[in-house]
Amino acid sequence: MRTDTHPGGAGGAVQGDPSDDALTEALRTGPFHLALRTAVRRRGLALHRIRHHLAEQGLQVSVTSLSYWQRGERIPARPESVQVVRALEHILGIAPGALVRLLEPTHGGATGTTTRAARRYQELIGSDTAVLHLLDQLDCPTEDRLHTVSQSEQVRLGPRRELWRREIQQLVRAHRGNVDRYVSIYEGDPGCDMTRVRIDPLDNCRLGRVRSDQAACLLAVELVFDRPLSLGETQPFRYRVTDGTGGECTEYTRGFRYPVGHYLLQVYFTPPALPVRCYRFTRRSAHAPRHRVTPVPLNGYHSAHLTEQDSSPGIVGLAWEWD
Whole-structure pTM over 0.70, yes or no? Predict the structure, then answer.
């Protein structure tokens, strides 16, 4: 099995307190967790102080829950949680309803469910300790500064049924200012040689630092933009990963921590090594069972594909069976 996920960008400069303009923009465009985090930093209150102010109003919420909310790992969806958000608007000195409106479905929020809350890295990659260690080496924050707007990728398998090459075209939006790079995590198939995996920036980016963990078959790569992005700014870029060192490949998956507007995956096979059947599936996490398993035909170009629109955080992929 070979899984790929994108944790997001690492900023180039140290961030200061958000300005009024940054808060205004975050409240206008969302998502909820970014607006909440920006408002908290602007107000300058520690989470335990916010919890104390809420308790004075008879509202009980843990510091852990507040932390999850502002990191996007949970969405306040229950009625009592929404009541807390209304109180937060007053405590943080922002207009009534400014945060609550970001919980509506049209703003990527939830109505009685937390299925669109961000996934943790540990949920999307089985080697959770190894990937966090690689991100730490790259000074990559555990909160995303870039979200994927749309993404398409072409994956090609070689004649030995190995994963040979993949090319990714991506459009991201900055959800924090002054971010100038994107960090991509690549997990190879068992037996792959990470020292021989090649990363080629193709458009609107250059190669930054690269860190690997051979035992876990993991590679962390910085793709650096020509300048820092401001809050809300978008950036298209394209890059290629060439491997071909692993064993037989039987699936390709993509992990997303946050909702994605559009995703297209195309997998090309090299004759005579063609699968006998293909199917698409989703997973909530790396170790969860497959869901929404649906057969996918192999076309006359020896290719199978899937497309997702407004997909929730989690894992989506194609799998196939050899004869």
Answer: no
